[in-house]
Structures are given as C-alpha cells and as structure tokens.
Design a protein that fits this description.
about 20% strand, about 280 residues, ferrous iron binding, alpha/beta, six-stranded mixed β-sheet, Xdiol_dOase_suB, three-stranded mixed β-sheet, globular, 7 helices, Protocatechuate 4,5-dioxygenase, Chain B
C-alpha cells in the first residue's frame, strides 16, 4: 500500500545550509527537505519509490536498476562530492519491470557491471541524503525509476496509474518520492558560476513563464486540481523547462487511480527559486 508521497528537489545548494555564499532561499529549502523526510519517516514505509529524471536513462524506455545496491555522490560542478549515498535496491524491482511490461509500458531493468552497485548522482543523492538521515529510513530499500523523456501527458498518467496498481498489490508500505525541480528559466541576480547554468547550454531566460509555472505547480499540490497540472502546466512546460514534470504526472495518474479508495492531501513546505531554477518541497498524505 501507498502510505505517503513527496516531492524533493535535487539542486545541490540545498545540501549544506552553512556553506558560504549560498543563494538566498537555499537554507530554507534545506529545512523544508528535512521536514519532508520526517513526514515520510512518520508514514513508516518499508520501501521508498524514487522517481528521478537524471539517473541512468534509456531513449525509449523507463529504466529500473535491478540491484542489489546503488551508490554514488552528489557531485555537481566539482563540489558536493562529500555527500554520498549507498542504498539497497528493492528485491521487488524485477517484479515491477515485468508487471509494467505486461501492461504495455516500455520498461527495462538495468544491471551495472556484473551486479556491481548501480551508480547514483545528484538527482538521487540529494533526496536520499535527507531521507537517510531519518533513523527509521536508514536501511529502507529503494525502487528507483528513471523516466524516458518525451512521453505524452496521457501516457505518463497511465504509467502512474499502473505504478500505483503495482504498489497497492504488494504486501509492503510504500512512500513515493519524486526528485524534481521546477522551471529552469528564472531570471537571477546570482553571479557565482557554481549556481548558474553552463553557458554552453544556451539556456533561455523566461522569467514570466517560470514564475507562472512554479506557482501553478504549487497550487496543484495544495488544491488537488488536476487540471492545473495536466492542462495549464502542461501547456507551458516546454518553455518552463521542468525536469520534474514527468514525475508529477506519474503522481497525478496514481492519485487518479485511487480516488475511490484514498484522498490525498498535499502541502507545499517551500517553493523558491534561489537561482535560475525553481525548487519546491511538498508532501502528500
């Protein structure tokens, strides 16, 4: 059964609130991430489902590491590599792959170097850092899922419904955690290259759309109005450039599928843009 869900950003600036010259808002996001991890812990999951947009990925299929473990660090721009993560991969991972394939979803299992630990980077290690600091979550195994890009809204909603169907059929307690950031088009006064996009990315600034997207996603969480996600946000996500959007759709698809059984209530703990990208911390219970 599903006992909780959360959205935790993966900007590495949220890892250390005492770091010198942090952009405004990063420390507040750190506090919010800790609070989200506590709420996940209080739901007493026996497995955490981590949806990550920047893990090992496949061009046309969703990727699922098959274990037995995963490890790595949150290195970004040559920093934060001291923030390490080492987790067990859920033994349910192969079952999940087969379940989803039987339902017609293109999903593939990944094995790393003759069953050596699957590599992790910032998009996994940042949320895992906060989750693993909770004593009750320190040894909880993970089902890690990495979407392939470019799927339609309806396809992602269907995937989320199938994901939740699998979880509800297991004799486990699951917390579903989406690692994802909001719009990457915010204007910023930050001038430290460590917190700015690589110039080679030619990333456009779309501040008006960025603010609209981020506020709409926050309203979706608090109101439960699915149209804010699947219509309004979906209409501007290409310009807004949000890496978390597929995961948000999976959550919505799962919530839709359980509406006769569960009522999910969302709360936003923080929604800020310390630099060029927005980060929101939210929980569902």
């Amino acid at each position: 059964m599903i006992v909780s869900a959360a959205i935790i950003p993966h900007g590495t600036m949220v890892l250390d609130p005492n770091r010198a010259n942090l952009p405004d808002g990063a420390a507040a996001l750190n506090t919010a991430c800790q609070a989200a991890a506590r709420l996940v812990s209080e739901s007493k999951p026996t497995t955490i489902v981590l949806i990550t947009p920047h893990s090992l990925s496949l061009t046309h299929s969703t990727a699922v590491p098959l274990g037995p473990e995963a490890k790595g660090n949150a290195e970004w721009n040559g920093n934060w590599n001291e923030f390490e993560a080492h987790v067990a991969i859920s033994p349910l991972s192969p079952n999940f792959v087969e379940f989803m394939r039987e339902r017609g979803h293109p999903v593939e299992g990944l094995s790393a170097f003759s069953r050596m630990p699957c590599p992790l980077r910032w998009a996994e290690c940042v949320p895992i850092h906060f989750l693993a600091k909770e004593p009750a979550l320190a040894t909880v195994p993970f089902l890690i899922i990495s979407p392939s890009r470019g799927k339609s809204v309806s396809t992602n909603l269907e995937f989320g419904a199938s994901l939740f169907a699998f979880l509800e059929a297991q004799d486990e307690r699951f917390s579903v955690v989406v690692s994802g950031d909001l719009s990457h088009g915010h204007a910023t006064t930050v001038n430290d290259p460590l917190y700015l996009p690589d110039p080679r990315w030619n990333m456009p600034v779309c501040d008006t759309i960025a603010k609209e997207f981020d506020s709409t996603i926050a309203e979706w969480v608090t109101s439960g109005n699915r149209n804010l996600l699947i219509e309004k946000s979906a209409g501007i996500v290409k310009e807004a450039m949000s890496c978390g959007f597929d995961g948000f759709l999976w959550l919505q698809g799962g919530i839709d599928s359980l509406k006769e059984k569960w009522t999910f209530r969302g709360q936003v703990l923080e929604n800020l843009s310390p630099s060029y990208f927005g980060m929101m911390v939210a929980t569902f219970s």
